[in-house]
Design brief:
Layout: E1 17-18, E2 34-37, E3 46-51, E4 56-62, E5 68-71, E6 79-81, E7 88-91, E8 108-109, E9 126-129, E10 132-135, E11 139-143, E12 155-164, E13 167-173, E14 180-186, E15 193-197, E16 202-204, E17 215-225, E18 231-241, E19 247-251, E20 268-269, E21 281-286, E22 291-296, E23 301-305, E24 311-320, E25 326-335
Antiparallel strand pairs: 1-20, 2-25, 3-4, 3-17, 5-6, 5-15, 7-8, 7-11, 9-10, 11-12, 12-13, 13-14, 15-16, 17-18, 19-23, 21-22, 23-24, 24-25
Length: 336
């Protein structure tokens, strides 16, 4: 398994909801089971946004084209590191950008792939007292992580100055203070997040409109545990839900071919982004020597409710293309 540590935090709220007992799914032609292959490539270079309704890739992008992620909703103001490059963030306690020139003594934090917002890496970069918003102007150091082939991307120090009129304003610099830039990222209202690149010094647009996709195939970081129960961050390759009105339920007891519209009744669905995650496959072989291969768990069936209220059953049927290259998840799904 690739042991390059990367982080993806797509910060979403963790909760679950039950469907009403009398909810019924209207009968109509569901069509046949659709099989599709998602080309992330052997280095998992691409993030791929997929629509179940259209059974198509809506868009894809190199996972390294952005460094900062911002909430796009009008009532949210979260700031996050790149979810796919294993970026991590340290608070410095300093408020002068030029005063920070080293990572010595800093403690870097990660966001939870579950969407739990209790311990975000950037945390609360502002405070609200009564009706007044106070900008902390604290200096954060961002470890940008690694690219898809393991190259170190370095560090940037950042001050988020304000969010005014739907625009995030911030400053960032190299640790050695040889270059400093100012940046802005404007809310668009169409996607879940907006994105900014330190490399191009501009806002970028990898994510399609939130209404256009259901699943994001990507690398992201999650917490795994040692045999002693100690948590540690680890890079995984998997699937994250669109946070916009998309929910899922995992079933391991039903035969996929026999799942029908009645199977979703009385199930507890959740919008937790990593509910599909990475655990639909497992590593076989010797991880110490790297002589491993991936085997799909055919018994994992996922019930997905999309933002339009349609239900799907989905499972994974492979992780390799016809040339035997890993990084090509094969999905089978059908509208219920």
């Amino acid at each position: 398994m690739n042991k390059t540590w990367l982080l993806f935090l797509i910060p979403l709220f963790l909760f679950s909801s039950c469907f009403k007992e009398d909810e019924r799914i209207k009968p109509y032609d569901r069509g046949n089971v659709i099989t599709d292959t998602i080309g992330m490539t052997q280095t998992y270079k691409y993030q791929v946004y997929y629509s179940l309704d259209d059974s198509t890739v809506v868009s894809q992008n190199n996972k390294g084209i952005f460094d900062l992620v911002f909430d796009n909703a009008s009532d949210k103001a979260g700031v996050y590191p790149n979810t796919a490059n294993f970026a991590k963030v340290a608070r410095t306690g300093q408020h002068d950008l030029s005063a920070v020139s080293s990572i010595a003594g800093l403690s870097f934090g990660f966001d939870a792939s579950s969407g739990n917002t209790d311990s975000l890496a950037f945390g609360n970069w502002f405070v609200v007292e009564n009706t007044d918003t106070l900008w902390s102007n604290e200096v954060f150091v961002v470890d940008l992580g690694y690219d898809d082939v393991g190259n170190v991307l370095g560090y940037r120090k950042v001050v988020i100055d304000s969010l005014v009129g739907g625009r995030y304003h911030f400053r960032y610099a190299l640790l050695n203070n040889t270059q400093t830039w100012t940046g802005t990222a404007a809310k668009t209202g169409s996607s879940n997040y907006i994105y900014f690149s330190f490399s191009t010094h501009e806002q970028v647009f990898p994510e399609p409109p939130r209404e256009d996709y259901d699943l994001l195939f990507t690398q992201y970081t999650t917490l795994l545990y040692t045999n002693e129960g100690e948590p540690y961050p680890y890079i995984v390759t998997g699937v994250l839900l669109n946070r916009f009105q998309t929910q899922c339920y995992l079933d391991t007891s039903l035969v996929f071919q026999e799942i029908n519209s009645e199977s979703v009744r009385d199930q507890i669905f959740t919008p937790r982004p990593d509910i599909i995650g990475y655990d639909w496959k497992e590593v076989k072989g010797d991880v110490n020597t790297g002589n491993v291969y991936y085997e799909v768990k055919f018994g994992n069936s996922y019930f997905i409710k999309d933002q339009k209220g349609f239900y799907y059953k989905l499972r994974f049927a492979g992780f390799y293309n016809r040339s035997g290259e890993k990084g090509f998840p094969v999905i089978e799904f059908q509208k219920l």
